[in-house]
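Amino acids appear as letters; backbone shape is given numerically. Here is one record.
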Amino acid sequence: MQHDHQTAANRTGQPRFRVILFTDIVDSTALYESLGDEVSARLVLAHNRVVRRLLARHGGEEIKFTGDGFHLAFERVEAALAFAVALQLAMQRFRRVAQPLAVRIGISAGKPIAADNDLFGSVVNLAARLCQQAERGRILVSERLRELAGSSGRFGAQCQTRLKGFDRPVTCYPLVWG
């Protein structure tokens, strides 16, 4: 979805609940080095089309394209989880046709600050750091998101991890999707 004056990131006022999701193409710099700019750019553009198609299907909002991933927001936990699983399945199919892309995803939930066509704050930072921590083809979610999800997803064992900028270890869960 494109930004317009009605997007959540552009509204001011009281923060409202959002599920924040970050995606990242794993080793995108190495991809450009090994395949060259033209081939890599075609793969990234194909990935972007998949993300945006799934985003529209699951009712999410594109906050920002980061060059090798996305900052996204959802109003419903179930929609964010369904999007994350659908994206990993799509990337798995993508790789089967000899395309070497893998994506990692981090998800958190809370009330981000909305201003200047962006969402920011601790909930956004947490989702971004979980994305960075996730392994190739994996989805990591915050403890709060796991609690809110209830039976909406299958989760692996609780893990504790140190994340840049966070004083204490953060509890997270892998979303089991495959």
Notes: Helices lie at 28-35, 37-57, 77-96, 122-133, 143-149. The chain is about 40% helix and 30% strand. The mean pLDDT is 90.
